[in-house]
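Thread: flavin-adenine dinucleotide complex, take 2
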Amino acid sequence: MSYSLVWLKRDLRWQDHAAMSAAARNGPFACLYVIEPGLWQQPDMAASHYHFIVESLRSLYAALRAMGGQLLILHGDIISVLNALYDHSPFHTMHSHEETGNGWTYERDRQVAVWCREKNVQWQEHRQFGVVRGLRDRNRWQTAWETEMAKPLQTLPESLQWQKLPFDVQVPAAAALGLHQADPPSRQPGGRQQGLQALNTFAEERCMQYRGGISSPLSAPTACSRISPYLSYGCISMRETVQSVRRLLLKLPEQESRQRGGLQAFQSRLYWHCHFIQKLESEPEIEFQPMHRGYTGLREDGWNPLHFQLLTEGRTGWPLVDACVAMLRETGWLNFRMRAMLVSVAAYPLWLHWRDVGCWLATQFVDYEPGIHWSQMQMQSGTTGMNVPRIYNPLKQARDHDPHGRFVRRWLPAMRKVPDSWLFEPWKMPPVMQQQLGFTLGQELPQPPVELEQATRLAKQRLFAVRGQPEVRAAKAAVIEKHGSRVSRTDKPKRKPRQTLPEVVQASLFE
Ligand SMILES: Cc1cc2nc3c(=O)[nH]c(=O)nc-3n(C[C@H](O)[C@H](O)[C@H](O)COP(=O)(O)OP(=O)(O)OC[C@H]3O[C@@H](n4cnc5c(N)ncnc54)[C@H](O)[C@@H]3O)c2cc1C
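Output below.
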């Protein structure tokens, strides 16, 4: 008897799984995950992503087995794997979730569509977030998001007809896929249980620190929810997350204002998750080209390999920047503000193009989600054309968010010897003092490669010269029309009408 195939991608769960639920309601089905060598050769992919995925697959494998089923995990390019399965036992339908991935997965999906047509296999793609494929009108987007989030969770029928296939699990070592980067030793572990644990501990307790706690790199690791990798690889679904938060909010007594405030602010971030992914879904080119094409050529010719090397090695000399790189290496995670600051330093004083910096950061973030990542890379580099460029000064950020140097001293051992008065600009310590403390400038204490204020001013001038061009100004409206948020214009309860919408809305993200 023929069956349906469920192709799992960034949706490593069975709960609230539209693709699996549709297949299971339609008779016998089999579940497949493919480890595709081509994907792992892309410059934005890293060993940490792979290990996280393998851990998540392990927990899903056990869960399906406990239900009497099977998770096929096969290694090879997707077309060969589909051919092998089809040649062994042909299937009539393939179900998967819509994926807003990188350029490689986009191209691969086109090939899969061709294969399905040739084999007469019906490929049904289901929505997994509030992201709309083929979106025509951004104005009604938020309403569509609300509708999607309010739908009942997808369930599996009580009696399941598993199609078992005689293929052994194939999980190559990371090195066999060419993944040689170190796995951050304190990275969040993959798996649904771990995702639920992060969500529950946050919703019940940690959310009380959310407001006011998410900006400093000291408090953010516990004040933030830390669910990002579990959403990125689909260990938990967006809908179940939104619904569980809303249920909790309904139950909360009015006087629990700290918890309520935290959960409400968190909820707005969940909305932003889909809002940013929608940009890449609507325009896959923004992985490679500026969102506003008028900024093409802005940084292309100025690539400075030394600046890039100092940044990626965490040796820029600006203590907060270098401490963030050290933390990333150890944990694979940073809070929003510190991510934005790293990109800002790269894009302005170091004048590095967002694409290469973005590939490097993608390999550092365990939660790498192409839609959020590339939209944010462009926003923080000033190439969207629609957001007022926000430039984070790393010295000011350090004064505001790590005034006593606890963070930098934790991550940069050399900083432990630096007296408080030189905490923010240690390279300015008089030579005698450096000698007394046993420092050699340029070694234990790197010296910034540029003078921060001057280099930032020059970068701003270059950016604003492009921004001021009449044709660039004229093209801005089309970018807003396609990608801008409409939250305060159409769907949000109206308080004060505002004109410069995207900038106003984004402000909430800079806490
Ligand atoms: C340059 C840059 C690159 C980024 N790349 C990624 C990425 O690859 N993957 C990723 O998940 N997030 C990315 N972010 C957004 C944000 O920094 C992370 O989502 C957040 O730090 C994850 O931690 P959390 O789950 O504890 O967040 P919380 O603050 O607890 O937020 C809950 C969820 O809301 C979503 N969210 C939060 N902030 C944002 C935001 N600003 N934009 C869109 N969605 C948001 C995420 O899904 C997050 O898991 C990036 C931000 C910047 C500035």
